[in-house]
Amino acid sequence: MSVAKHINVLDYTLLSLSRRKFKNITIILVFTFVIFITGSILFLTYSFKREALLILEGAPELIIQRMSAGRQELMPVSISGEIMRLAGVTKVEPHHWGYYYDSLVKANYTVIAGDGTLSKNNRLLKGRLPGDRDTHVAAIGRGISKARFADLDGIISLQSTRGSLMDFKVTGIFESDSELLTSDLIVVGLSDFKELFDIPEGMATDLIVHVSNETEAPVVARKIRELFPYTRPILRNEILRTYDAVFGWRSGLILTLFAGALVAFIILAWDKATGLSAEEKKEIGILKAVGWETSDILEIKFWEGLVISLTSFFCGIILAYAHVYFFGASLFSPALKGWSVIYPDFRLAPFINLYQIVTLMALTVIPYIASTIIPSWKAAITDPDEIVRG
């Protein structure tokens, strides 16, 4: 086939699309909406998983918690010496952290003692972290700063477990490589932490265990479990798998809620696959009658399906990208971020999984093109006179 003939086919394809522009625009809108919803969820879920990986890059290889009746309890620091004697263990550190419910803004904060165990990914936006000997000072996340209207050198008040009010001077307002970690975070000195939560001396929330070789962490965890049956060792890989499972489950739940849009698209594709309208069949019959070949008609329908599906796909992907990375995924992020009232206000770094994009294209574009060509082929191989007469 000559180049001129291909150009004529393309020209006819554009004219054919313009003649049925309202129908095609409707199809494009539905198709775009489906791609937008699915693409937004894929972008958001993958970016959250990548953010979780960034957060946990500096996390310890092993965390030891004390369990009683299925609930976490305070851990005695005295067992650190026995854990240190295990082969492969290089360091054991007590870790002090807890949750604080703020009735003023009806939100939960994560409070950590600034005892040197903070993730290396943390970096201050301005100010400084509380020192080991500092008292009644705190570094807070930007979410808390906005909620409590507390800027640098301001005062934030917290009620201790015993009921007394503790005032903290804000020495730092910080962010990290991912604000998912720090938006609702408060860092105070160790003595202030113990006073706030009434923690006895010699007790910690959990123990952080560093091992010389990460591959030995499961062996060390098993030995600790044998020595102290009441403990629960948590590996860093287990935390990563939990994040992956949680975000995967939540993204699946959102997709289920928007299953109606997916069903609408399936019905639309099925409607095109089950047959052509009388007008379209008559058009194919006339083209055959005036000398067009079956291959020419299939080429027209191929270009029609390709133009509609690719236009819809790229519009949907572009809208999904802008929704997630420029507008903070306002439609879906609350469902994926979790239960916290103080949602992190941040823009995710663009992490795109090309495999997911290609898979989404294969599951939407290719079936749509096929559903356009197959009924056209059936009409094209039918006798033109029979088609025109109906």
* Tally of domains: 2
Strand content: 15-25%
Mean pLDDT: 79
Give the overall form: elongated
Secondary-structure class: alpha+beta
Oligomeric grouping of the chains: single chain
Largest sheet report: 7 strands, mixed
Number of strands: 14
Distance between the termini: 31 Å
Radius of gyration: 30 Å
Q: What percentage of residues falls in helices of 4 or more residues?
A: 40-55%
Q: Please tally the helical runs, counting DSSP H or I stretches of 4 or more residues.
A: 13
The string of secondary-structure elements, in order, is HHEEEHEEEEEHEEEHEEHEHHHHHHH
**Low-confidence region ranges:** none
Keywords:
single chain, 390 residues, alpha+beta, 2 domains
